[in-house]
Amino acid sequence: MKENNQAAIAVAYKRVSSVAQKLKGHGLESQDTRCREFARMKGYTVEKSFSDEAVSGSLIDRPGMKAMLAYLRANRRYATYVVLIDDISRLARDLRAHLELRSAIAAVGARLESPSIEFGEDSDSTLVENLLASVSQHARQKGQELTKNRMMARFQNGYWPFIACVGLKHIHKVGEGRILVRDEPLASIIQEGLEGFASRRFEQQIEVARFFETHPDFPKDAKGRVRQQLVKDIMTKPIYAGYMQAPADWGMPLHKGRHEPIISFETFQRVQKRLNGEA
Fold first, then answer.
1. 3-state SS of the chain: helix, strand, coil percent to 5?
2. Peptide bond into 185 cis (omega under 30)
3. DSSP state of 207
4. Which of 16, 22, 39, 263 could form a Cys-Cys staple with 44, CB 3.0–4.6 A?
């Protein structure tokens, strides 16, 4: 390790917020390239790199960030560290999170630098930094609003905008986009289980679970058991009868979907009556 009177040593911090970015790897790679090129221009040595993958910019408690702060805390007496970020939005996309992480980095004796913004402690620099952090927060919130609006519009048109439930899967159809279809053989297994419960072939929910467990293709836990919560979801979700139920905060009633149902709505109603103890 270098002593405090030596040139600054840098660590790079990178973050991507989505699973897609994580799997493709392009976001982390491009951030790393920019940070290292910036370090070369400034004469810094990049000693270590830290990253958070598929982590929201509004969160403070992140594994990569915690590991970096612990590293800087443990080695602060050996060197003057610079934390490099590709862009201010990589640190955080929430003003509160930005300020807290900024303070945490300063508390371990490091300073923040980026090729996209010049950080400073004077009032003008602080104003610009806070404005950029606020803009980043607004962009994140606006993106969430647009995504929700698109999902609500798809829902109103009869298309399921969420992750497909067990027994159903999304496919792309020209002119309609992503639509739900039966996912065999799971769809037929679920159909037999629900119709069996509706007809009293299976007297209790646990019998439906055991029926599902007899099929190798049905999803199970590490012990080879079908989770009771999964069985409950299958037996109570109207999606299997061709109807869709929106989140409570959307304020939408039960809505008929465009996908092919696994069971009839009448069968679904009989299942609900039996679950509620009715004849």
1. 50, 15, 35
2. yes
3. H
4. 39
First to last CA, the chain: 77
Are the C-beta atoms of residues 215 and 245 closer than 8 Å to each other? no
Asked if 12 contacts 35 with a C-beta cutoff of 8 angstroms, the reply is yes
Q: For residue 46, what pLDDT is reported?
A: 94
8 A C-beta contact, residue 114 and residue 85: yes
Helix 205-213 crosses helix 228-236 at what angle (to 10 degrees)? Answer: 110
Written as six digits, the tokens of 79 are 């060197």
Q: Give the residue-averaged pLDDT of 204-228.
A: 93
For residue 177, the cross-strand partners are: 173
Tens-place pLDDT, residues 68-114: 999 999 998 888 899 999 998 888 888 888 999 999 999 999 999 99
Pick from 235, 242, 237, 231: which is nearest to 179 by CA? Answer: 242
Q: What are phi and psi of 4, to 5 degrees?
A: -60, -25
Q: What does the pLDDT average to over 136-163? A: 90
Tokens, residue 93: 């996309």
Tally Cβ neighbours within 10 Å of residue 28. Answer: 19
The CA-CA-CA angle for residues 196, 200, 205, to 5°, reads 70
Q: How many CA atoms lie within 13 A of 261 on its CB side?
A: 18
Q: Is the dihedral of CA 216, 222, 226, 232 positive or negative?
A: negative
CA–CA dist 266, 192 (Å, integer): 15
Encoded tokens for 162: 């969420």
pTM score: 0.63
